């Protein structure tokens, strides 16, 4: 069975992906991600830019590869590399396809995909699911009230108490206990960090990081 190597573009805009409907051949009316054959001497990215130019009269920027699909059709084996892409110039004019749609995540199964492209849809759904597991929470509270494994505080090389946030951390943690811990460490070079217990803080640890001090722009 012969193998056909192709590249496909998952063109994204405002949370939607661009899908095209085939207008010819045995898989007419099925939907796919636009792209085409990789010619000898071409990279997958080069082939993809050329194919989108020929099929859609559009210039794209090719991003990261998000899927590689190996699929056996009755007449051939398809080896497909799929890349995220964005439009640089052009209006995605349908020069070969029958129709096109921008599909949101909830609409991905609203069209009848080619079997190989359906594998790409599943990869997109899986990656979206992984992204949803990551959450960021913004809290507007004092650093001394943060209940976490550690808080980070800017420090000087001698690790002595300062003003502002540093002074507040010393006060909440307990001046004597934190000062004693810093004395045992002794010194921290610029660009380095040390860690002490949190003592009276809700956080378990305090990471004290020493950053450079700007002088006049002439000292490195």
Summarize the structure.
The protein has 220 residues and is an alpha+beta fold.
Describe the structure.
- The chain is an alpha+beta fold and 220 residues long.
- The chain is 24% helix and 32% strand.
- The strands form two sheets. Strands 1, 2, 3, 4, 5, 6 and 7 form a seven-stranded mixed β-sheet that branches. A three-stranded mixed β-sheet has the order 8-10-9, covered by helices on one side.
- The protein starts with a strand and ends in a 10-residue tail after the last strand.
- The relative contact order is 0.14.
Task: Describe this protein with a few key phrases.
three-stranded mixed beta sheet; single chain; 4 helices; alpha+beta; seven-stranded mixed beta sheet; 220 residues
How are the elements arranged and paired?
Elements: E1 3-13, E2 16-21, E3 31-32, E4 35-37, H1 44-56, E5 59-72, E6 77-89, E7 99-103, H2 115-132, E8 150-155, H3 164-173, H4 175-185, E9 193-197, E10 205-210
Parallel strand pairs: 1-6, 8-10
Antiparallel strand pairs: 1-2, 1-4, 2-3, 2-7, 5-6, 9-10
Our measurement of the CA-to-CA distance between the termini, rounded to an integer number of angstroms, reads: 64 Å
Shape: elongated
The number of E-state strands comes to: 10
Helical run tally: 4
pLDDT averaged over residues: 88
Helical coverage, percent range? 10-25%
For the CA atoms, what is the radius of gyration?
28 Å
What's the story with the biggest beta sheet?
Answer: 7 strands, mixed
The string of secondary-structure elements, in order, is EEEEHEEEHEHHEE
Task: Give the DSSP E fraction (strand runs of 2 or more residues).
Answer: 25-35%
Q: Give the structural class.
A: alpha+beta
């Amino acid at each position: 069975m012969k193998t056909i190597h192709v590249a496909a573009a998952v063109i994204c805009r405002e949370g939607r992906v661009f899908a095209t409907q085939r207008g010819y051949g045995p898989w007419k009316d099925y939907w796919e991600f636009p792209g085409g054959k990789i010619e000898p001497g071409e990279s997958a990215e080069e082939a993809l830019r050329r194919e989108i130019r020929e099929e859609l009269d559009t210039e794209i920027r090719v991003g990261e590869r998000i899927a590689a699909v190996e699929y056996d059709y009755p007449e051939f084996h398809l080896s497909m590399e799929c890349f995220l892409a964005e439009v640089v110039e052009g209006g995605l004019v349908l020069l070969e396809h029958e129709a096109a749609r921008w599909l949101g995540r909830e609409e991905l199964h609203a069209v009848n995909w080619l079997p190989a492209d359906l594998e790409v849809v599943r990869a997109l759904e899986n990656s979206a699911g992984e992204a949803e597991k990551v959450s960021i929470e913004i809290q507007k509270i004092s650093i001394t009230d943060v209940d976490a494994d550690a808080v980070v505080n800017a420090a000087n090389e001698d690790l002595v108490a300062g003003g502002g946030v540093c002074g507040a951390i010393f006060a909440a943690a307990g001046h004597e206990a934190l000062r004693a811990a810093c004395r045992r460490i002794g010194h921290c070079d610029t660009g380095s960090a040390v860690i002490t217990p949190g003592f009276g803080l809700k956080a378990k640890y305090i990471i004290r990081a020493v950053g450079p001090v700007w002088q006049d722009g002439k000292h490195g």
